[in-house]
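Re: [ENG-882] Designed sequences occasionally contain unexpected residues at chain ends

Forwarding the minimal case from QA. Structure tokens:
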């Protein structure tokens, strides 16, 4: 990248007066073992550029600022630990990773306020902007992770309470309705739901 800048668009003359336009973006991709990595790609769709680039930038930021899992879980109360242990995630490690990703998303959504203007991951296209975003995230990540954990515990508690009420019902007349409600909860609270439904927040 010349000058450490990712251009918003590039054009190539393929001959016969035809110019092909592409939209560079940092794109999150799985490696050979399925682990998330980031690569620079030229997309054909301008509409997808901002979305994919934001995901790629956030994945890079997480890779450089992520906290050790033990540092996060050590702050959980006994009640929080029990609730989170019953989450739909395959392991505590995967839950912690998704919580950290959600925190990075919340810190790079471009929000603004009197005390806390946020970087916008989609607009980070040069080294200086990336360095500023990384510094911003690093300074606030731990507190944001703790806030996200609070939201996750509340969501899991509500889902567990609702599931208990559904199981306690023996009304045949409500069977279809209760099944539908259970399916909707499962669609909302699943492995990966924390970063899929992020809260935009800004912690100083």
């Amino acid at each position: 990248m010349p000058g450490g800048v990712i251009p918003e668009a590039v054009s190539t003359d393929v001959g016969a007066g035809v110019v092909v336009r592409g939209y560079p973006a940092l794109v999150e991709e799985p490696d050979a073992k399925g682990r998330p990595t980031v690569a620079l790609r030229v997309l054909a769709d301008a509409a997808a550029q901002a979305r994919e680039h934001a995901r790629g930038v956030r994945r890079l930021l997480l890779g450089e600022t992520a906290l050790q899992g033990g540092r996060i879980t050590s702050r959980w109360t006994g009640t929080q630990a029990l609730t989170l242990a019953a989450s739909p995630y395959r392991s505590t490690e995967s839950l912690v990773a998704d919580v950290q990703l959600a925190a990075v998303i919340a810190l790079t959504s471009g929000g603004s306020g009197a005390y806390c203007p946020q970087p916008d991951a989609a607009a980070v296209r040069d080294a200086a902007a990336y360095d500023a975003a990384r510094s911003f995230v690093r300074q606030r990540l731990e507190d944001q992770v703790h806030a996200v954990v609070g939201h996750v515990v509340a969501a899991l508690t509500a889902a567990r309470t609702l599931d208990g009420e559904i199981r306690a019902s023996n009304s045949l007349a409500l069977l279809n309705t209760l099944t539908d409600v259970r399916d909707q909860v499962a669609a909302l609270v699943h492995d990966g739901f924390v970063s899929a439904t992020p809260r935009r927040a800004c912690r100083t």
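QA comment: On inspection the terminal residues look reasonable. The first strand starts at residue 10 and ends at 15. Proposing we downgrade this to a documentation issue.
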